[in-house]
Design a protein that fits this description.
The protein has 399 residues and is an alpha+beta fold. It has two domains: 2-300, BirA Bifunctional Protein, domain 2 (2-Layer Sandwich), CATH 3.30.930; 312-398, Rossmann fold, CATH 3.40.50.800. It is built from 14 helices and 17 strands. The protein has helices at 2-17, 31-38, 64-75, 117-134, 146-155, 163-171, 175-185, 189-199, 213-228, 291-300, 322-334, 348-357, 368-371, 391-398, and strands at residues 21-22, 28-30, 48-50, 56-59, 82-91, 103-112, 140-145, 202-203, 234-237, 247-255, 264-271, 284-290, 312-316, 339-341, 362-366, 375-380, 386-390. The protein has a nine-stranded mixed β-sheet with strand order 1-5-6-12-11-10-7-9-8, sandwiched between helices. α1 packs antiparallel against α4 (117-134), α4 crosses α9 (213-228) and α6 (163-171) runs antiparallel to α7. The longest helix is centred in the first third of the chain and has 18 residues, at 117-134. It starts with a helix and ends with a helix. The chain binds one RNA strand of 77 nucleotides through α2 and α12.
RNA sequence: GCCGGGAUGGGGUAGCUUGGUUAUCCUAGGGGACUGUGGAUCCCUUGACUCGGGUUCAAAUCUCGGUCCCGGCCCCA
């Protein structure tokens, strides 16, 4: 938990640096909310049940829908854009495996207000900054656009109800299966090859020549803004499809190759959901980082987390100075200095040993000899150097 | 939904195939050697067979069932 809280704190402060505000929503919602967003099939993949009042409720499987609902319910009159971030656990009824748990944590953000390259750039820049701030070395950010394929498939007369299965095959790069499906709809091999070629388009903005002018210039603008922000470790990958119905334009994801099958650590894109939940239609861009997964990736890279102990461990030399020691530890704590004191009534040697075990930075040794001079001995626990310090100077020394 | 592996002191483990001793070793925790100075060493000590049924004179070990964990596939908002 100490490790997790430490990294949570880094993500929070990065989000705040970008001008985002933290929000939180309930752990469970009406099941209907998630059905409205993702369709009735998600019922198979979430924890959904009836409560004692026979309400249909579900443990949240993700946080975008709850946050948008919250926006509609109680934040719709806030100044736009709303830049919100969240951190919380989610639940999915799936078979656990490495990097995938039934209870997991997401750290995400939503920008509610407009659909444009600036909004998308802001989202991607924050996602990249957060991943970087954690110190993850090996990762890749890929930017795509769901509108391109939607347009091409519509032009090829693929009926909307067949879109999900086609997109799913394209996302998996299962072109033979996709060709079969497209063939059954009456899409010829040439048209299919053209579609496959688009999903294989990967690289810098120079690869955008083959896409339609509106999307091409949009993505060029996006990449230019990102570059101006110093976010250059991203690539265009029009194969990022994400199989998600509700995305409307730009989509992006980040992956950590070290994680194997469950390597995706971040996913997001632009969407419009608020009108589904009874609000006005507002375009948004959001993303979520898989917190457990990114921590796992950092672990695999050999990143070690060391928790630290208190600044001052107060060591009474003998039992008759314990009340003096209590006064001193209280003085330190009252001044905002983390301080601990022996409560096991150990002898000095054992107490120093314990102070060392709990990683205290300094020992404050309280003994009769020192107290006669209104002083204590301060010992640096890593070097072993120690010196007498007057009680009046103790707090400022630690500060 | 499908498949594989596993569960032994706080942590890490041996033992299980071939049933039988005081359940092994490392580490950690408490105390001591050491009376006002930690990290070393030595000694003492605390502490475990996932649950339930069955077989047997005897089960950590064999068997059946449950629970939980880990991993792979599928799926992945």
């Amino acid at each position: 938990m100490e490790r997790r809280r430490y990294y949570e704190g880094i993500l929070r402060s990065t989000a705040k640096t970008f001008g985002f505000r933290e929000v939180a929503t309930p752990i469970f919602e009406e099941t209907e909310l998630f059905i409205m967003k993702s369709g009735p099939n998600i019922l198979n993949e979430i924890y959904a049940f009836q409560d004692k009042g026979e309400r249909n409720i579900a443990l949240r499987p993700e946080l975008t829908a709850p946050v948008v609902r919250m926006f509609v319910n109680s934040m719709s009159n806030e100044p736009r854009p709303l830049k919100l971030f969240y951190f919380g656990q989610c639940f999915r009824y799936e078979r656990p495996q490495s990097g995938r748990y039934r209870e997991f944590f997401q750290f995400g953000a939503e920008l509610i207000g407009n659909a444009n390259a600036e909004t998308d750039a802001e989202a991607i820049a924050l996602a990249a900054a957060m991943i970087k701030s954690l110190g993850l070395r090996e990762y890749k950010v890929r930017i795509g656009h769901i509108g391109i394929l939607r347009q091409m498939l519509a032009n090829a007369n693929v009926p909307p109800e067949r879109l999900p299965e086609v997109l799913q095959k394209l996302d998996k790069k299962m072109y033979d299966d996709a060709r079969d499906i497209l063939g059954s709809i009456g899409v010829g091999d040439d048209a299919a090859d053209e579609i496959f070629d688009i999903t294989e388009t990967v690289g810098g903005k120079e690869v955008l020549g083959k896409v339609s002018e509106d999307v091409g210039s949009y993505l060029r603008e996006l990449v230019d803004i990102l570059a101006a922000m110093g976010v250059v470790d991203v690539e265009i990958d029009l194969g990022v499809v994400r199989g998600l119905d509700y995305y409307t334009g730009m989509v992006f994801e980040a992956e950590a190759p070290s994680l194997g099958a469950e390597k995706q650590i971040c996913g997001g894109g632009s969407y419009s959901l608020s009108e589904l939940f009874g609000g006005e239609k507002v375009f948004s861009t959001g993303f979520a980082i898989g917190f457990d997964r990114i921590l796992l990736a950092m672990e695999k890279e050999g990143q070690k987390f060391e928790n630290t102990g208190v600044d001052a461990y107060v060591v009474p030399v003998s039992d008759d100075v314990r009340t003096d020691a209590a006064r001193i530890v209280s003085m330190l704590r009252g001044s905002g200095i983390s301080a601990d004191i022996d409560i096991m009534r150990r002898k000095i040697g054992k107490t120093l040993n314990h102070a060392s075990n709990v990683k205290a930075k300094y020992a404050v040794i309280v003994g009769k000899n020192e107290l006669k001079e209104n002083s204590v001995t301060v010992r640096d626990m890593s070097s072993g150097d120690q010196k007498m310090v007057r009680l009046d100077d103790l707090v400022s020394l630690f500060r």
